[in-house]
Amino acid sequence: MKAVVPDSSVLSALKTLNCFTHLKKLATMKNWVMVVPNPVLEEVRNNIDIMELRKAINCRICTIDLDDLTDLRNRFPALADGELAVLFLTLYFKDFGIKTDEAIAILDDKTARSIANKLKINYFGTLRLLKIMLDNGILTKPQFYAFIQKLRESGFRFTDAVIHNIIG
Fold it and tell me: How much is the pTM?
């Protein structure tokens, strides 16, 4: 079992795509436990109903004291609290009683992904998440490409080269 920790941009993208049920299917199929830190919830509170989210993806909400993020915030001041919380929780998931083999962050921000790489945190982004859904039969190719187009139209920024890299 793996703990999968999404950032607010991921949750916002999935909300835009009306794709929470797809994530729940994937989590069940892959034996993932979805864990959302409270600073991420604070970032999406105006756009996503938290109770709806909790029910839709069957997630566990993890409370992280913002004081616990001080060390990471001092080291990486460019990151928002949600991104810091995802990195923190992914680094210290066992300290929060999450019984899994490993934790994976889902991050879209380039700086956050670079820092995750430096910290040796496993991560991927929303587009890779959609590709995993495609590879596991949760999305069809037309759905996948329609979701990519809808993300692009909603202001989600990525290049054609990123899509080509994900598709392989």
Answer: 0.92
